[in-house]
């Protein structure tokens, strides 16, 4: 019988709980630590467990709840039942927050969310208010995705149409294969194009040279590797991207009702959401402060891991 070399203390043992949603789906939530409960929401394409390096030093003070949104991470096999995935995620998170509060006998808990996870929280606040959230940290995310006459702070800023056209092209090429679950069976040229566009998105998300180098190394696949690549969430990512391009996501109307303390964490060189427009979000919120990490792009934990940890720690101690 194989034994672990080290028996980890209880605080450092990661476990998974499952929370029943309104459609009886069991959503996996990774839980680690002891103390006050905190919820962290992950980004598009991210596994919730990628937060672990940043929260290990805090596990003695806080119990972190890390939901895996449908189609990603441990929940990669759980399908969406609505095209409007952001609102479906918001409905799911409403149940998760209620269940955590009930289980821990608390009225509310702090929430930090990044990118798509933060978009989900804007939708959550619009639909359910902020009574169950004691404080919120918004990590580099605008409440409005599409540029409009009164808002040029949407996704990719001034390059929005250029990048959206690239996304539309890839989606149009993949539509004939919408019923094909296996990425391996797609035409090779389409697989190359799809993975190249994914890499483009990842590279636009970072600013630091080391982050770009890491992405290049981790995402490039030569022809033999790509031929056998089993991209298990490709279909889900395309579906989410299609909704982003199609639906008029704009939750600015909910901001004035988010009266809880908010920390607006901004990547000073974010290519996804212009820092100038993100600062306007701080002004629109009734009780917000902002922190700008001047050398960071959109993916703040990757570009500025130490800075991100310090801001998260400070947010939780307030």
From TrEMBL:
<dbReference type="Pfam" id="PF00561">
    <property type="entry name" value="Abhydrolase_1"/>
</dbReference>
<protein>
    <submittedName>
        <fullName>Pimeloyl-ACP methyl ester carboxylesterase</fullName>
    </submittedName>
</protein>
<feature type="domain" description="AB hydrolase-1">
    <location>
        <begin position="36"/>
        <end position="305"/>
    </location>
</feature>
<dbReference type="InterPro" id="IPR000073">
    <property type="entry name" value="AB_hydrolase_1"/>
</dbReference>
<dbReference type="InterPro" id="IPR029058">
    <property type="entry name" value="AB_hydrolase_fold"/>
</dbReference>
<dbReference type="InterPro" id="IPR050228">
    <property type="entry name" value="Carboxylesterase_BioH"/>
</dbReference>
């Amino acid at each position: 019988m194989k034994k672990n070399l080290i028996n980890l203390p209880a605080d450092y043992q990661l476990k998974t709980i499952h929370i029943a949603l309104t459609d009886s789906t069991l959503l996996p939530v990774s839980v680690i630590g002891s103390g006050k409960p905190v919820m962290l929401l992950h980004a598009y394409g991210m596994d919730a467990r990628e937060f672990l390096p940043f929260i290990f030093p805090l596990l003695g003070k806080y119990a972190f709840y890390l939901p895996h949104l449908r189609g990603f991470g441990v929940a990669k096999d759980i399908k969406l039942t609505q095209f409007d995935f952001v609102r479906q995620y918001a409905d799911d998170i409403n149940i998760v927050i209620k269940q955590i509060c009930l289980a821990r006998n608390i009225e509310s808990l702090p929430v930090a969310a990044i990118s798509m996870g933060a978009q989900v929280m804007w939708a959550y606040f619009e639909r359910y208010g902020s009574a169950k959230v004691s404080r919120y940290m918004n990590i580099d995310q605008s409440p409005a995705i599409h540029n409009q006459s009164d808002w040029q702070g949407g996704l990719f800023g001034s390059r929005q149409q250029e990048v959206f056209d690239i996304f539309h092209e890839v989606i149009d090429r993949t539509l004939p294969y919408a019923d094909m679950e296996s990425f391996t069976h797609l035409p090779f040229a389409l697989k190359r194009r799809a993975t190249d566009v994914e890499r483009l998105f990842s590279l636009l998300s970072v600013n630091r040279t080391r982050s770009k180098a890491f992405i290049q190394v981790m995402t490039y696949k030569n022809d033999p590797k790509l031929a056998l690549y089993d991209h298990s969430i490709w279909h889900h990512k395309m579906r989410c991207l299609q909704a982003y391009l199609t639906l008029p996501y704009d939750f600015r109307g909910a901001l004035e009702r988010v009266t809880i303390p908010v920390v607006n964490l901004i990547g000073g060189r974010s290519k996804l959401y212009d820092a100038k427009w993100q600062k306007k979000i701080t002004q629109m919120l009734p009780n917000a402060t902002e922190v700008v990490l001047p050398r960071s792009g959109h993916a703040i934990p990757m570009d500025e891991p130490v800075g991100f940890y310090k801001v998260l720690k400070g947010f939780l101690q307030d």
